[in-house]
Specification:
Rossmann fold; 5-stranded parallel β-sheet; 2 domains; 6-stranded mixed β-sheet; alpha/beta
């Protein structure tokens, strides 16, 4: 089963006796694979001797591609799906979701590692009180990567309409020339509402948007990453339609928030609190630990070092890197083992638990849809 994932994998990772070995199959976009592997090395340093032997395939692209429909259920003609790790999943796929590379930094666009960036965002939140923030919905990014982002442009201010949205196209080439002076994420925490919309797949931007104390207007997502299924509509974010009514949906949300400022502020605060408490780097590492530990229990063979694999060393990753990449790796280097063990893994949800979670999410979304249809809110 592991071997069958090779055609769709970017690299193979084998851990034996606490040492990591990697076999690369294809180059990843920018430095995604390098920083993902760097994060795994830090996990080995944080919990030395606690990561079991394992053998896995990893894909660094945006969209999951182990489709459920390609595999037949139990029986003599069944086909086993390859266990493939990646950054996101959806309801139609079986990819194993793992934290993305940006937690250790994204040097190509000058996004800091998660720990110092979180501090920047907390300071940015303090600069402008919610009541003094711009009373419209803000989004800035690359519209060329998805149709829904392209349609979002139609929600911008025009002579005919004010949809209460301000949408800006990000020119990364120009930003690079200007040394990213207009792309500081902490400087964007000056709006009451911030829009999240997916790109090619899910987007790493969600955690930055949720951390801003603003009301996150989440255009109906198709994909999820390792933490987003914990988010509850109308508690952590406001749901936005992804169809032809998207602009109306955004305007309605902004009008509601400006009319119910205390409730709107509470949504923004709940989101930033969730990010601060539940997405601490310690918990990210614990999620990584449990994902790899539970995966290793399923292996029915003893992992061995592939003939074409090379041992993964800190110096091998950090030394060839340049400028920001080197700085980010030094900044995220785990300097000592953890004094405590990883958090305890809770038992799996029961079917009843899962039904309750589904209802808890669907109910507020239906309520918002009813408000929008009647053009009234409470």
């Amino acid at each position: 089963m592991v071997e069958s994932g090779r055609p769709k994998a970017g690299f193979r990772l084998v851990i034996i006796d606490g040492r990591a070995y990697v076999e690369k199959f294809m180059d990843a976009y920018q430095s995604r694979d390098k920083f993902t592997l760097w994060g795994i090395l830090q996990l080995l340093r944080l919990y030395p001797g606690k990561i079991p032997d394992l053998d896995l395939m990893f894909n660094c692209e945006d969209r999951p591609n182990i489709f459920i429909g390609d595999y037949i259920g139990p029986g003599p003609n069944s086909t086993a799906p390859p266990p493939l790790f990646r950054y996101c999943g959806d309801d139609d796929t079986l990819d194993i979701v793992f934290p993305d590379w940006s937690f250790w930094g994204w040097p190509e666009i000058n996004i800091k590692p998660w720990v110092p960036l979180m501090e920047d965002l907390k300071q940015g939140n303090k600069r402008t009180k919610w009541s003094n923030r711009e009373a419209y919905a803000y989004w800035k990014g690359n519209i060329k990567v998805s149709m829904v982002r392209y349609k979002l442009l139609e929600c911008n201010l025009s002579r005919e309409h004010d949809w209460k949205a301000r949408v800006f196209m990000q020119d990364w080439d120009k930003e690079q020339e200007q040394r990213f002076k207009n792309s500081n994420l902490a400087d964007q925490c000056i709006h009451r509402y911030k829009i999240y919309v997916e790109g090619v797949g899910w987007s790493v931007s969600l955690k930055y948007i949720l951390a801003c104390d603003s009301v996150t207007l989440m255009v109906k997502p198709y994909y999820y990453d390792f933490f987003t299924r914990s988010l509850v509509p109308m508690h952590h974010y406001w749901p936005i339609k992804d169809d032809g009514d998207m602009c109306n949906s955004i305007k309605f949300a902004v009008d509601w928030g400006n009319t119910h400022q205390q409730k709107a502020r509470a949504i923004g605060k709940a989101a930033s609190k969730f990010i601060e408490e539940q997405l601490r780097m310690e918990k990210v590492y614990d999620y990584m630990f449990h994902s790899l530990n539970e995966y290793s229990k399923l292996l029915a063979f003893k992992p061995t070092i592939p003939p074409n694999a090379t041992e993964l060393c800190l110096e091998e990753l950090a030394c060839p890197a340049q400028n920001l990449a080197t700085k980010f790796m030094i900044d995220t280097l785990v300097k000592r083992p953890s004094f405590s063990s990883p958090c305890s893994l809770l038992p799996p949800f029961s079917p009843t638990d899962l039904d309750n979670i589904r209802i808890r999410k669907e109910t507020p979304i239906k309520q918002v849809e009813t408000w929008e249809k009647n053009m009234s809110y409470k």
